[in-house]
Design goal:
The protein has nine helices and five strands. It is α+β, with helices and mostly antiparallel strands. The strands form two sheets. It has a three-stranded antiparallel sheet, with helices on both faces. It has a two-stranded antiparallel sheet with strand order 1-2.
């Protein structure tokens, strides 16, 4: 996975290269001059980052493009899901996951066509990730969409948080919001905002070695729903916690406990839960030092009304660090990932 590069650093590279059209390598003196010039460039003057294409380089995200997925209506999203289902090779869908692709896509479409959809499925469905005979429970509409994003395509060359990962996480939010809102609605989603996820999380990691090395993402939401779905919410949280215990990420003695004090959420509540479970199933093939992640509140980019979605990179203060429960799951003997790579300091 490539090192994250800020817009300022990109400008620096342009200054250096423009200053040395003949020599490929800039001298140290030229680089120092370039950095001094850079300091005088205000952030507002920097050229906006062009977003890379998503889903195996098949879908525009950049809104400068006519067919940007950020502009899609519900019917266009449904049509896209059908294209992927019909031609998984073109979108590089994880081979093992293809056995579950039809039922997941069909369920998403079915829910999107309901008059009054609920955040929780009446009965969960199971889906494969990368390991045969290792199925995961998908129990909300948000789980279904997250699974689809997690198994479709790998990260393009040059991807970083600014030009790919954060916009893709925002697109995840836009997809599930538009799939649960009337085609021409201007104001209110079918699923009330307070029953939508309050947090989403993306984990990025390298998998494989040498020529088979790829960078993947896993993305999911926390357990949604407020008071009216208290029973369903606790049932799903409990199911996720049982999966954490069964897969060796959580000690059984911590069942129904929390490391988030005071009065924090129990294990299984967090948006990190399903991404961590997916990755645990292939952990021996994952380069632990490359794993990193970020979480944020969808309300940062989803409008209360209208159709304007703000997906510019938020400040570090708006990125949520992994909580103490997740820090435990990340630790040695479990995932073995670096905690600092899952905090706002990495942004």
């Amino acid at each position: 996975m490539q090192e994250l590069r800020t817009s300022k650093e990109a400008v620096l590279m342009n200054v250096v290269h423009d200053a040395t059209p003949v020599n490929v390598q800039a001298t140290m003196q030229e680089e120092i001059v370039a950095r001094l010039v850079l300091e005088a460039v205000p952030d507002a003057a920097l050229v906006p980052t062009k977003l890379l294409k998503a889903f195996n380089n098949m879908v525009f995200m950049d809104e400068a493009e006519k067919d940007s997925a950020f502009k899609w209506k519900r019917s266009q999203i449904i049509a896209f899901l059908g294209k992927v289902k019909g031609n998984p090779d073109a979108y590089n869908v994880v081979q093992t996951a293809r056995d579950s692709l039809t039922k997941v896509v069909d369920k998403i479409v079915s829910i999107s066509q309901e008059t009054n959809p609920k955040p929780f499925l009446q009965s969960h469905i199971t889906a494969l990730y990368q390991v045969k005979n290792k199925e995961f429970n998908l129990e909300t509409i948000f789980d279904l969409v997250g699974w689809f994003f997690s198994v479709t395509g790998t990260s393009p060359t040059g991807a970083n948080r600014e030009n790919y990962y954060y916009p893709l996480a925002c697109l995840f939010c836009v997809f599930w919001r538009r799939l649960t809102r009337p085609e021409n609605a201007e104001v209110e989603a079918y699923i009330a905002a307070n029953n939508e996820p309050q947090k989403i999380q993306m984990t990025v990691f390298d998998q494989g070695k040498a020529s088979k090395k790829v960078t993947r993402i896993c993305i999911m939401s926390n357990v949604p729903g407020k008071k009216e779905f208290k029973t369903e919410r606790e049932k799903v949280r409990d199911s996720r916690e049982d999966a954490l215990i069964a897969d060796g990420l959580q000690e059984k003695r911590l069942k129904n406990q929390t490391m988030v004090k005071p009065n924090g959420q129990k294990f299984g509540s967090c948006a990190e839960t399903l991404p961590f479970l997916f990755i645990k199933s292939i952990l021996s093939d994952v380069d632990a030092k490359t794993a990193e992640g970020f979480a944020f509140k969808p309300q940062l980019i989803l409008p209360e009304e209208g159709k304007t979605y703000k997906y510019n990179k938020p400040s570090a203060e708006q990125i949520d660090r992994a909580c103490n429960n997740c820090a435990y799951l990340l630790g040695p003997g479990r995932l073995g990932f670096t905690y600092d790579n899952f905090t706002e300091s990495k942004y």
